[in-house]
Amino acid sequence: MRYHQRKRFDTQTFAVATAIALLVFVIGCGGKDSPESVSATDTVTPVVPTPISSTPELEVYQPEVPVEVVAAEPQLVVFADAEAVYRARQYNEADKLFAAYVDQNPDNPWGFYMLGLVQRQLDRSDDAVVSFNSALEIDSLHAKSWTNLARANMDLGQPDEALDNIDRAIELSSESAVTLRLQGRAFHQLGQVDDAIAAYRQAIILDRDDAWSMNNLALIYIEQDEFEIAVQALARATQLDSSSATFHNNLGMALEQTERFRAAENAYRNALVADATYAKAATNLARVEHVEGNIDEPEFGLTASADAFEFTVSAWIVDSKAPDSPDDVDVSVTDTNSQSIGDETTEPADKSEEVSENVSEQDSLSQGIIGSIEF
User: Fold this and answer.
1) Buried b (16+ CB within 10 A) or exposed e, 114-151
2) Number of independent structural domains in the chain
3) 354 lies in a domain?
4) With contact defined as beta carbons under 8 Å apart, do 246 and 237 qualify?
5) How far apart are the first and last CA of the chain?
6) Backbone angles phi, psi at 141, to 5 degrees
7) Within a domain: residue 97?
């Protein structure tokens, strides 16, 4: 019996020990999983709050430093280079060059003079008037500026102002055929025909190769029904410059008035050879081709007619007691600054006084059809 009691005691003791061990195991595992458990060996670092400054730190504004842009110095313009561009008819570029030139050389009248020439080529005659006046403010004896100021006046339909300026030019250079030719145009535009004839004749006396004065004078002769001398003057003009379509066309008109229709037809054809786009000559040719000439139509010889006009000019020279050769007359103008200068006599025909303009239209004797007269 004592044996059984002891055995039961041992069994109970083992069960209790096992239960205790199991309980300790469970408690140990649960402690590791608990977030609230802290190991005795762990070190706890205290959290120190960051102090807040009583004065908040301000952001300092740093302005952008502007980058200084240094403008390039303007390139100096050489007068001769700018003039070469003008003579090459690159007028927009020449305008820029001479505008820069006068800024760099404000005391040189030739710069303003050339700028005025360029502006006329660009159909800015108002600006040209300003430029020529600027040249004259610097040098009131600048004859070329007076002459071209008058041309700008003519562009603007101001013949009275033009005559005043031409008078100043003639005072400075009384033997300039170019200025006298321009004077003839102004007189003609004002209806002062006798004065216009006198001016053109004097221009031809001074320069017997002045084809444009011959052309312009011939137009007045046509207006006055003096057709034969008009033919002679235009024959001489075409002889001097056979490349001018205007001269050939006007010669054809004068020949029509003398009923030399085949000669007129030939003149119109020559005008179209010189300029195939010349509409007036084409119109005149189409008209005269349908006109039947008379069997006894007067003959026309270009050389003979031109020689006849030369004889007439010689008579004018004798009457006026003027020099019989333009070589006897010094019409040159010297640039006191020893620079290359622009000469208005070499201007392209589209803006010189030789510009072709409709000045009158005469009824054809044979057809009663209005023709095209230009100067």
Assistant:
1) bbbbbbbbeebbebbbebbebbbebbeebbbbbbbbbb
2) 1
3) no
4) no
5) 167
6) -100, 15
7) yes
207 three-class SS: coil
pLDDT tens for the chain, residues 1 to 375: 544 555 555 555 565 556 565 555 545 555 444 444 444 444 555 555 555 555 555 566 666 766 666 666 668 999 999 999 999 999 999 999 999 999 999 999 999 999 999 999 999 999 999 999 999 999 999 999 999 999 999 999 999 999 999 999 999 988 889 999 999 999 999 999 999 999 999 999 999 999 999 999 999 999 999 999 999 999 999 999 999 999 999 999 999 999 999 999 999 999 999 999 999 999 999 999 888 766 667 788 999 999 999 999 999 999 887 444 444 433 333 233 323 333 333 333 445 333 333 333 333 333 333 344 444
> What are the φ/ψ torsions at residue 360 (nearest 5 degrees)?
-165, 160
CA distance 90 to 78: 16
**Domain of residue 114, residue span:** 75-165
220 occurs within a structural domain: no
Whole-model pTM over 0.70: no
CA distance 62 to 65: 9
Instruction: Answer for the pair 142, 122: CB distance below 8 angstroms, yes or no.
Output: no
CATH label of the domain that carries residue 95: 1.25.40.10
Beta carbons of 178 and 146 less than 8 angstroms apart: no
Tell me, yes or no, whether 296 lies in a domain.
Answer: no
Structure-block tokens of residue 188:
């003609």
82 and 112 in contact (C-beta within 8 Å)? no
